[in-house]
Amino acid sequence: MPLKLTRRGRSKNWYLRGTVRGQAVFESTGTADRTLAESLRIRRESEIEHRSVHGAEATATFLEAAVAYMENGGESRYLGKLIEEFRHLRLAEIDQPRLDRAARKISPDGGGAWRNRSIYTPFIAVWNHAVEDGLCQPRKWRRPKMKKPVTRAGSPDYFRKLLPHCDQRLRAFLIFILNTGCRPSEALGFDRNGNDLNLAEGWARLLTSKTEEPRLIHLPPVVVAELANLPDYPNGRLFGWTDYHRVYKPLKAACTAAEVEYLRPHELGSHSYATWMRQYGGKDSVDLLKTGRWKDIRSVARYDHADINVVKRASDAFPDVQNKSTRKRNSA
Predict the structure, then answer these.
(1) Longest dimension (CA), the chain
(2) Mean pLDDT of 151-177
(3) In-domain check, residue 36
């Protein structure tokens, strides 16, 4: 029985109903326009017939794969533009050149890092999910070339110059993220009187984070003192801000007044925390991973350069080749 257009209850949209090659269909067209609904009916009928003959791999569309990916908990943040671009294209029609052209069209001025993050990564995530669903074959996708990111962090002298030019709230915020490694968005999520913040015992708790694991955070005395002196903000939040973008303006003003280079909140928090843990805390990559702040060893490897003392201790122990004696340089 071919598909028919029907109405359902009070909905203005047309619905497809019927059975094609043994597959029962009852779904909305998403439109109240009869002409458009009719064209969707014809296309849907054709898709089902084509799939019954050629199989799912030959007929599955990107839209179908993207919807399945999101319904199974996939991130939808960057998929809108990709769906708009590939919508009813069959997965079998999408190849590397087509993906590259779409990336240039969606983000003509974007750099490699941005295109990788907002286009290639979500596309590949949808594709890999479709592979698991049997809608397409696995394949290796080429990503855009990216410059190796430069890890910038604030030195003790940097903070000594900057903090006197910060108001009470910004100062407390910076000291908090520096000493805990919290992401700015995580820091702003704490409530002043919430159950996940205990100044008396010096700890805070993140129930959800980017690593998808809860994290218990130690609050050093300097952090507790700063937080205890903060006023109660009307919205109940610890720092009063609800969006970390609100930090940018006062931070830039403070950097200008202190005559120091502007570093982003992430660099003054996570990057500085990890760098200081290496340089002054004597911790290695494994130790950083154990804090729960990072998900895998690759994430913390970017801070390996921070601890020059590791190289110094090792190279100072090399044998002295300038003299006949093979004693070590530091054993005189």
Answers:
(1) 97
(2) 93
(3) yes
76 shares its domain with 216: no
Using pLDDT thresholds of 50, 70 and 90, give the confidence band for residue 329. Answer: very low
Q: What letter represents residue 145's amino acid?
A: K
Cβ-contact 184, 266 below 8 angstroms: yes
Inside any domain, residue 138: no
Tell me the whole-structure pTM to 2 decimals: 0.56
Element housing 249 (H / E): helix 248-258
Q: Which domain holds residue 121?
A: 59-132
CB 182 within 8 A of CB 291: no
Task: Look at residue 234 and tell me if it is in a domain.
Answer: yes
What pLDDT, on a 0 to 100 scale, did the predictor assign at position 56? Answer: 61
Residue 217's Cβ-count burial label (10 Å; 0-12, 13-18, 19+) is buried
User: Is 327 a residue whose pLDDT tops 50?
Assistant: no
The per-residue DSSP string of 78-132 comes to THHHHHHHHTT-BGGG--HHHHHHHHHHH-TT--HHHHIIIIIHHHHHHHHHHHH
- Residue length of the chain: 332
Same domain? For 49 and 69 the reply is no
pLDDT range class, residue 289, cuts 50, 70, 90: low
Residue 178 corresponds to which tokens in the numbers above? Answer: 């520096």
Location of structure tokens 């004597």: 282
Q: Which amino acid, one-letter code, is at 102?
A: A
Alpha-helical regions (H) of 133-234 = 156-162, 168-180, 184-187, 221-228
Same domain, 160 and 302: yes
Structure token pair of residue 280: 């002054």
Query: Is 115 in the same domain as 186?
Result: no
Does residue 29 fall inside a structural domain?
yes
8-22 confidence digits (pLDDT tens): 888 889 998 888 877
Q: What's the structural domain count of the chain?
A: 3
